[in-house]
Amino acid sequence: MTVTTNEGWNLDNSYQRLPGLFYSRVQPTPVEDPEVVMFNQALATELGLDASNLEKSADLFSGNRLPEGGLPIAQAYAGHQFGHFTMLGDGRAVLLGEHITPDGRRVDIQLKGSGRTPYSRGGDGRSSLGPMLREYLISEAMYGLKIPTNRSLAVVTTGESVEREVAFPGAILTRVANSHLRVGTFQYARNWGEKEDLQKLADYAIDRHYPELKNDDNKYISFLKEVIRKQAGLIAKWQLVGFIHGVMNTDNVTISGETIDYGPCAFMDTYDKRTVFSSIDVRGRYAYGNQPDIGGWDLSRFAEAILLLIDDDEDKALEAAKEAIQEYLHLYDQYWLTGMRKKLGLFDEEEADGELIHRLLDLMEQHQADYTNTFRSLTLDQFDKKMRLFQANAFKQWYEKWQARLARQSETTEQTQQLMMANNPSIIPRNYLVEEAIEKAVSENDYSVMEKLLAALSNPYAYSEEQEEYAVLPPKPDEPYQTFCGT
Ligand code: AMP
Ligand code: MG
Fold first, then answer.
1. Where does Mg(2+) bind (predicted)?
2. Which end of the chain offers a freer environment for a tag, N or C, measured as fewer CB atoms within 10 Å?
3. pLDDT tens track for 396-432
4. Active-site residues: which are they?
């Protein structure tokens, strides 16, 4: 049922102008007793929506009522999951439509946990509250960290329970994304569509995300290169803050270059390239230190999927695609090194900077130093006595070298510190903080802990007094922490 409201929706459905194989029309399955538990006022306002009218729209955020102009669909896609190719699709999500903001941006409005779709396979199409709150919290924290990401507009509880190992309260998350086009969408087109379908999808993606490429001589090779560049930049940003995505399957790699699919993701405390949190990633395929290479693997699957469009001559297409893929690690290294220089307050470039950076990381690994707090300490020039790293002679030698390096640039100490503060978050959503906030909300219906944490994380570069309680070293950092997909 659609009702006219003053919520400010301006919905279009451009994705549905693609061939029918790319989606299925589907209605969200109504829920019993929806209640809004999280609402993102700032995001609603930013999107030109009427926050005060929307705030209590539990019927809307649950899918019980459609927004004006909404025409819900589930999107079809495929993907390599842990290396194995399979047909997927939105099994528990529906796209309500694309909202056009007053300043002309187009964003997908999607409900996650809204019931079964033709792509649900054995699943119930539902989500439980804990994982939806987790996605809300971490995606908004990523936004605060200035990392491209989908956003979270609201969470509703459904008044129903979902059966997992035990029964959990059901919930639905409203996600906002630049689009939900994935590498897996192209793999789907390549495997289940004709060349014409693939081309229509590519043209759609170029129009929506890379319109500046439209008139290029070979816009599809330009498209491949730009997607590669965006992902290289994104993954470098993850590495720089210690974010571990956890499921870098090709269906979770976006064409727009946004972080998407917050399942088992988590932030690393102790610096260790082998860090894995996801319970199902038993071989560490998506470990922290593997993320850049896996990004390259995923992008190779993207290149394969659109190869047909690049050149009619298969050898020529392959040659061009290979060249673009080879550029990926080079781009990644550049983005990472640029970011690391900023983390150390370096404005200019010296040949030996890489060595200086790697020496620090080696020492951090050796002394099991907390990643975030090492850089926080360097930024503040205050060294936590509880961190072994700072007692080590080798660190003291490194510090002297770094100070000498800083002295060779003309910027003032204040300027250097400003640069470091803007690039080293004072706080991150630490695992124990996230768990505590979710636990309070789910078990005691108390959202104040989560709201307070979200507020602190909205500007992690503020170095404010209110953030200090979140900046202490985590308790028992060595205790193995496990995350789950939340399916
Ligand atoms: P994800 O792990 O969220 O990337 O999901 C992988 C695939 O499983 C996607 O096709 C999802 O739509 C589907 N899926 C995950 N959870 C459910 C569920 N509860 N019911 C139906 N499909 C699901
Ligand atoms: Mg996914």
1. 252, 261
2. N
3. 999 999 999 999 999 999 999 999 999 999 999 999 9
4. 251
Question: Which residues, 6 or more positions from 133, have their beta carbon under 8 angstroms from its beta carbon?
Answer: 37, 38, 155, 171, 437, 438, 441, 442, 450
Single pTM value for the model: 0.97
What is d(CA 104, CA 153) in angstroms, rounded to the nearest whole number?
A: 19
Query: Look-up: residue for tokens 């379908």?
Result: 197
**CB within 8 Å of 375: residues ≥ 6 apart:** 343, 420, 424
Nearest to 268 by CA among 293, 295, 244: 244
Q: Per-residue DSSP letters for 141-205?
A: HHHHTT--B-EEEEEEEEEEEEESSSEEEEEEEEEEES---BHHHHHHHHHHS-HHHHHHHHHHH
- Any ligand 1 atom below 6 A from CB of 163: no
Structural contact between residues 170 and 100, judged by C-beta atoms closer than 8 angstroms: no
- C-alpha 355/C-alpha 346 separation (Å) is 14
Give me the phi and psi of 213, to 5 degrees please.
-95, -10
Give the number of the atom of ligand 1 that is nearest the alpha carbon of residue 77.
10
The CA-atom distances, in angstroms, between 468 and each of 148, 248, 360, 439 are 26, 32, 24, 22
